[in-house]
Amino acid sequence: MRVTVSGFGAAQAMAQQADLAFAPNGGRLTHGIEEILQRAASEERNTHAYHNQTGHAQQGTASRVVSESDDHFEAHLEMAEEYSSYLVKRGYSRLDEIAAKAKREADRHVASTAARVAR
What we know:
The chain is 58% helix and 13% strand. It is of the alpha+beta class.
C-alpha cells in the first residue's frame, strides 16, 4: 500500500498562517483588536469636553483585555469612574460614538484576518 500526499507544504504554510493570525496572546487578530481599543481610549482622553479637575475620569478611560484563551477573547473599552455615565449622558464625553466606531473597525479587522487566512 502506498499513500501520497500532495500539497503538504501548502497545508503546513496555511496552518502556520492561521496560527500567526489566531494565536491567543499576541496573534494578529487579538493584537489588532487591542490596538483598536487603545486608539479609541486615547481618542476619548484627547477629545473630551469635560473639565479635567482631578484627572480621574481621563486616567480611568482605558481598554483592557478581560479574558483570553485558545477559544475566547474579550476586551473592553471603558471609563472607570462612577460618574462617567453622567459625562456621557450630558455630552461631555463621546465614548459611545467612539466605541461604536471602534466596534466597526474591530469587525472589519476580524473579517480581514479571516479572509487573509482563507486565501
